[in-house]
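User: For this week's homework, look closely at the record that follows, marking any run of repeated tokens, and judge whether sequence predicts the tokens.
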Amino acid sequence: MTKKTLGIIGGGQLGMMLVEAAKNMPEHISDTIVLDPTKNCPASRVGAKQIVADFKDKNAIVELSLQSDIITYEIESGDSKVLESLHGEVSINPSPGTLRIIQDKYLQKQFLRQNDIPVSDFDAIESLEDLQKKNQGFPISCTAKGKT
């Protein structure tokens, strides 16, 4: 079995835990690299190489893909369109399509409901007027369509 380099978008606490878990899989993972805007992020402090750049920086995401065999994320801030363009050149899990769904809370709730996973009632709110029309009193559960 060929050892793989794991690329992670996000190097915070969850990224740090992913790096630590990867260290416990030396037969599968040879190296870890994270993309994170904070120099000396938690994941880098436990041994990951780091690309210091914004999570949505196209060039940095491409660089991460060139240095990785597998890409995952610990934060949903990555650019799903850039990742989609790289899908096939590098293994990305969860898929960029899944990332896109979780980045848009309205799409996420629709997806959950379509897959028979219970969610509270929700409406698309695209303006203050929408909110005022749909607010029948508190509590209200709403998600700005297209926003995280």
About this structure: The mean pLDDT is 90. The beta strands are 4-9, 29-36, 49-52, 70-73, 91-92, 124-125, 143-144. The two ends are 39 Å apart (CA to CA). The chain is about 40% helix and 20% strand.
